[in-house]
Amino acid sequence: MTRQPLLLLDVDGPLNPYAAPRLRRPDGYRTHELMPTWWAERQTRRAADGVAKPLRVWLNPAHGPELLSLPYELAWATTWMDEANALIGPRLGLPELPYVRWTELFGEDPDGLHWKTRDVVAWAAGRPFVWVDDELGPQDAEWIAAHHPGPALTLHVNPRVGMLADDFAALRDWAAAA
Ligand SMILES: [Mg+2]
């Protein structure tokens, strides 16, 4: 049996529609107050009193089963790294997933690529993948097409709404065609 393509998942944007209006949690989502390491470090640096406030995260529990029903192998491609397994996955009903470990969180890229892009391509190691994220630009898609030997798709999700039925349909279509 051939291996399924990888589905690389960002958390903030696709699964947590953080940019939705503050008082309008999208339908189907639940509110969580979480303290991932990347957030705690950032908050402690910025807060005058050095005390980190938790991060409000909206998650839709229907997304876990929907993701698991797709013909992909799931993996995290998020700032949360392994903490996505501890803090996000269980709230969506997802099992422990492999994750991309970043060379440098929020690092500046000399060619203007997203700070995740080179690590994602290295991690995929030639396997077909779809990468779901809210911050990728055409320069990332072009770089991936030039440097990744297998088929790949970057799927942009609007962080005001998170993943929608159309995104899941696009993922099924791409896997069927790949
Ligand atoms: Mg994001």
Strand order of the largest sheet: 4-1-5-6
Overall morphology: globular
Helix/strand order: EEHEHEHHEHEH
Structural class by SSE content:
alpha/beta
The low-pLDDT segments are none
The fraction of residues in strands falls at: 15-25%
What is the CATH architecture term?
Answer: 3-Layer(aba) Sandwich
CATH class: Alpha Beta
Average pLDDT works out at 95
The tally of helices reads 6
Bound compounds, each kind once, are:
magnesium ion
The CATH topology is Rossmann fold
Q: How would you describe this structure to a colleague?
A:
With 178 residues, the protein is an alpha/beta fold. It has a single domain, classed as 3-Layer(aba) Sandwich (Rossmann fold), CATH 3.40.50. 32% of the residues lie in helices and 16% in strands. It has six helices and six strands. The strands form two sheets. The protein has a four-stranded parallel β-sheet with strand order 4-1-5-6, with helices on both faces. Helix 5 links the parallel strand 5 and strand 6. The chain is globular. It binds magnesium ion. The site of magnesium ion (MG) has 6 residues, from loops.
